[in-house]
Amino acid sequence: MSKHYLALSGGVGGAKLADGLAQLLPPEQLTIAVNVGDDFEHLGLPVWPDLDTVLYTLAGKANPELGWGRAGESWGVMEELRALGAPDWFLLGDKDVALHLLRRHLLEEGLSHSEVAVQLARSLGVEHQVAPVTDQPLRTLVDTDEGRLEFQRYFVGRRAEPILKGLTYAGAEQARLSPAVAAALQHPQLAGIIICPSNPYLSVMPMLAIPGFREALQSSPAPVIAVSPIVGGVALKGPAAKIMQELGVEPRATITADLYGDFVDLSLIDTTDAAIAEGVSGVAVAPTVMRTREDRRALADTCLQALQSLQQG
Amino acid sequence: MSKHYLALSGGVGGAKLADGLAQLLPPEQLTIAVNVGDDFEHLGLPVWPDLDTVLYTLAGKANPELGWGRAGESWGVMEELRALGAPDWFLLGDKDVALHLLRRHLLEEGLSHSEVAVQLARSLGVEHQVAPVTDQPLRTLVDTDEGRLEFQRYFVGRRAEPILKGLTYAGAEQARLSPAVAAALQHPQLAGIIICPSNPYLSVMPMLAIPGFREALQSSPAPVIAVSPIVGGVALKGPAAKIMQELGVEPRATITADLYGDFVDLSLIDTTDAAIAEGVSGVAVAPTVMRTREDRRALADTCLQALQSLQQG
Which pTM value belongs to this model? Predict the structure, then answer.
């Protein structure tokens, strides 16, 4: 039996590393667990932003400019929604709408979220296993100076402008790991776990809130590596640094060691922040900024080599 | 108080006459009751074909070539549904999808079907009152040689090819007339009721199946006129003639007198069929084929004049 790897991913940054891993590993050797805290229903459409970003990225169909949605997207539905005076705060591309409609259809057929993800991957030509971290509803709620907001209302509707005071991962207590993620954790040849460079509070922590997941990561015999989403004190994408400041946390590259130190063996930070790593154990330095498809593969290769060293060490 | 008129309409043909009436009558003098038997949910979208056809037609936004849907439609969603291998038997234009999404949103806000229709009319710039005949679910089911089919599965999915053996208007027994239609029937100045040239079995009979509606038409002091959908032994649009043959009914112009004789005072048939009308009471002849917008207004004018004669007679 060949080695197996488990990657945890949120949206854009995570999806890029997941794509790098998928370039190096055959489908049967990789499970990509995806955050579901951002999922919501809009105008009756089930929207799963992180899963779609990972699938689109692996399919080579992601929009490189927007950082979300599809390349070559058209906006016929959105234009008409605006003309009709319908809610237009959440942008829906036509190809996105089609995927949401197919998802709705599959859910109505009685498929679990994991089974839906398998079907959507097949429809998009993605061969690797991309699984929602849980099949149960788990929703990130944002407590702000304007009150409690659903995640997309905060993130898209209000452009992450309200001051964040706290986060709630509603439903997490009742959630269980999805079958594919649970199986990957139990895989007899599990050779490594990769925490992709995703927002700790909005992408990774919602997953870790699932009962038993953090403990499983702590007790796993496989080494765990985390790639920091913070480079030079800022997040490459999204509101991570702003959120950390509002929560009173210094946005520094070693945030992954700070937050995941109980189960992460090695934090990988960008060469920009090499000075921080000096004399600090459990932190390694490498180029982590992924501009090209080759950058993704190179970072994935760095991760896999580091995991191999950890396993041998 | 000024005169009021009530029109009953199905899809294309009915919508054209409704548009003619709307050209002649100010909004406060006309209520257009629309069949709901074709309504269904597709990929989670609430689709109300006859209501949309009437609204699009009155808004001047209907697709003149297709006979359904929007003019200047785009197909971004549909193309992607096909690419994804999603169900594609029912065509969804992008503008149509937008309207269905807005409808879904309004239904989720708790609005009744009638209230939703008011909002959609406003969004489309339609000032006349277009009301679903009922706010309750009423679905036309088609018994065929291939078994019982939901209407759209029969009509669109199977192109009305299966041999029809019978029709069921499911839910009709529990349905009540919508407030606007009930109010129009009780209007103290109701000067006429117009049965538009719509398929008797698929558009008009589902409405008449609502308890008390037929009786209300019979006992209304206002005259009732029906415009025949059959011209020269065929239906101008749709499967009416085929259905009638399968039900053992001769598809002739005076079908309206045959089917609605208990409440219709006058059937209007096309000049093509003038010979049939000779010596038959309760049947009048006029050009009923509506090719242009002016044709619609002319036929509407014929109807209103006939109603006035009936009321005076």
Answer: 0.93
Rounded to whole angstroms, the Cα distance separating B169 from B137 reads 10
Beta bridge partners of A284: A268
Q: Could you give the ipTM of this predicted complex?
A: 0.92
pLDDT (tens digit per residue) in A132-160: 999 999 999 999 999 999 999 998 899 99
Asked if B81 and A74 come within 8 Å (Cβ–Cβ), the reply is: no
Q: Chain B: which residues have CB within 8 Å of chain A?
A: 43-45, 74-81, 83-87, 93-95, 97-99, 101-102, 104-105, 108, 120, 123-124
Q: Which residue has the tokens 């005169």?
A: B3
User: A76-84 and A94-108 helices cross at what angle (nearest 10)?
Assistant: 90
Residue B102's closest chain A neighbor by CA? A86
For B109-143, write each residue's pLDDT tens digit: 999 999 999 999 999 999 999 999 999 999 999 99
B123–A84 CB contact, under 8 Å: yes
Query: CA angle at residue B176 from B172 to B178, to 5 degrees?
Result: 120
Pick B4-63+112-312's CATH classification: 3.30.540.10, 3.40.630.30, 3.20.20.100, 3.40.50.10680. Answer: 3.40.50.10680
CA-nearest residue to A41 within chain B is: B105
- Cβ distance A304 to A310 under 8 Å? no
In the predicted structure, residue A1 carries a pLDDT above the cut 80: no
Q: Which residues of A touch B99 (CB under 8 A)?
A: 80, 84
Shortest Cα distance from B188 to chain A (angstroms)?
35
Return d(Cα B200, Cα B197) in angstroms, integer: 8
Output the CATH code of domain A4-312. Answer: 3.40.50.10680
CA distances to A93, B6, B11, B142, B306 from B192, rounded to whole Å, are 47, 7, 21, 32, 9
Count the residues in chain B.
313
CB < 8 Å to A45, chain B: 44, 101
pLDDT at B237 over 80: no
**Partner residue opposite A81 with nearest CB, options B76, B101, B124:** B101
Determine the Cα–Cα distance for residues A302 and A33; give it in Å rounded to an integer. 20
